[in-house]
């Protein structure tokens, strides 16, 4: 698979980026949010998609199962089944940079649980898994 990030100043439009990803023979792509333009470009391709709920969305997802279901209805369901979404990562490297992210740490597990519950209620838990991304700096400390 390949990561498809949007930090840059000379990026091709999503349709061109997806064509390039396909031409390189990748079968899976990870995006770092739920950008509808990218998800639309990934629709009706053979690419499996890992998408993300951003660190900024944790509070919403952790609030309640109903809030997570609403996020799912707005960010994911409109793109199914055309986009082959197989996983949603909740947060990005949240456990890194404690000076910035530590206030959000208690939100991670409830957000993941609420999103899993929303996927189950929508009948999508067999198709879409929930996880989180941990940075390599987590390996800095060895016991």
List keywords for this structure.
143 residues; alpha/beta; TIM Barrel; 5-stranded parallel beta sheet; 6 helices; 5 strands; globular
The top level CATH class name:
Alpha Beta
Q: Mean of the pLDDT scores?
A: 92
Encode the helix/strand succession as letters: EHEHEHHEHHE
Count the DSSP helices: 6
Contiguous low-pLDDT stretches (5 residues minimum) are none
Helical residue percent? 25-40%
Question: What strand order characterises the main sheet?
Answer: 1-2-3-4-5
Question: For the terminal residues, how far apart are their CA atoms?
Answer: 31 Å
- Which CATH architecture would you pick? Alpha-Beta Barrel
Our count of domains comes out at: 1
**Rg calculated over all Cα atoms:** 16 Å
CATH superfamily: Glycosidases
Class by helix and strand content? Answer: alpha/beta
Shape: globular
Major sheet characteristics: 5 strands, parallel
Count the E strands: 5
**Portion in beta strands:** 15-25%
CATH topology: TIM Barrel
Pfam families: Glyco_hydro_17 (PF00332)
Organism: Pinus taeda (Loblolly pine)
Keywords: Glycosidase, Hydrolase
Family: Belongs to the glycosyl hydrolase 17 family.
């Amino acid at each position: 698979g390949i990561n498809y990030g949007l930090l840059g100043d000379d990026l091709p439009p999503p349709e061109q980026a997806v064509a390039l990803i396909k031409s390189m023979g990748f079968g899976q792509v990870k995006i770092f949010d739920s950008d509808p333009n990218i998800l639309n470009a990934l629709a009706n391709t053979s690419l499996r998609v890992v998408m993300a709920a951003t660190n900024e969305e944790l509070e919403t997802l952790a609030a309640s199962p109903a809030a997570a279901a609403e996020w799912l209805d707005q960010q994911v369901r409109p793109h199914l089944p055309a986009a082959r979404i197989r996983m949603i990562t909740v947060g990005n490297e949240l456990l890194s940079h404690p000076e910035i992210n530590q206030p959000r740490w208690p939100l991670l597990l409830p957000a993941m649980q609420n999103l899993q519950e929303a996927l189950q209620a929508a009948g999508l838990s067999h198709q879409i898994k929930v996880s989180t991304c941990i940075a390599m700096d987590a390996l800095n400390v060895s016991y």
